[in-house]
Amino acid sequence: MGNEEKEIWELSCKHQRMQTLMHHVNRNSLVEEHHRQCGNKASGVDRETKESYGQNLEENISELLKRMKSFSYRPKPVRKTYIHKMNGKLRPLGIPSYEDKLVQRVMASVLNNIYEPRFLDCSYGFRPNVVPS
Q1: CA-CA distance, 36 to 101, in Å (whole number)?
Q2: How far, in Å, are 45, 104, 118, 120 from residue 37 at the CA level?
Q3: Which tens digit of pLDDT belongs to each residue from 42-59?
Q4: Cβ–Cβ under 8 Å, residues 38 and 50
Q5: Does the reported pTM lie above 0.85?
Q6: What is the Cα–Cα distance from 34 to 28, expressed in whole angstroms?
Q7: Within 10 Å of residue 82's Cβ, how many Cβ atoms?
Q8: Above 80 in pLDDT, residue 13?
Q9: What b/e sequence results for 35-54 when a residue is b if at least 16 CB atoms lie within 10 Å of its CB, and e otherwise?
């Protein structure tokens, strides 16, 4: 757990209500998430890949962060494709844009750090790194 994640965790334990989350999103968290992304994932409607986004990473992250902090960030439409199932049918699959993937993961991390201390030890559903005993 990084310093920022630990700080969010501690604040969440102290306070019953947290009203704003954007001050927990910063350049470092977005850059770290960029580096965590898998390079071989399908691209969204913008056809942006990790490699192409990373070619101008500082400017891209700076612009994304500015849009997020000013609440002018808007997710792009999801690219819809179909994958074959074992029974011969097709299953629809939505592929978000690269920036949307970054935003989703960074915000999920912030929310996990806020809510994780509030969950009961016997609650296991969809929780990262929690194994039923």
Answers
A1: 11
A2: 18, 12, 28, 30
A3: 899 999 999 999 999 999
A4: yes
A5: no
A6: 10
A7: 10
A8: no
A9: eebeeeeebbebebbbeebb
Name the one residue in this structure whose structure tokens are 């960029």.
34
| Residue indicated by tokens 């016997």 | 122
Which CA distances in Å does 26 have to 13, 54, 64, 66, 110?
Answer: 22, 17, 10, 10, 11
Report H helices in 15-97: 27-36, 50-54, 57-69
Rounded Cα distance between 63 and 58, Å, is 9
Terminal Cα-to-Cα distance of the chain (whole angstroms): 22
Q: Show the tokens assigned to 60.
A: 């891209």
Share of the chain residues as helix, strand and coil, in percent rounded to the nearest 5: 50, 10, 45
Residue type, 87: N
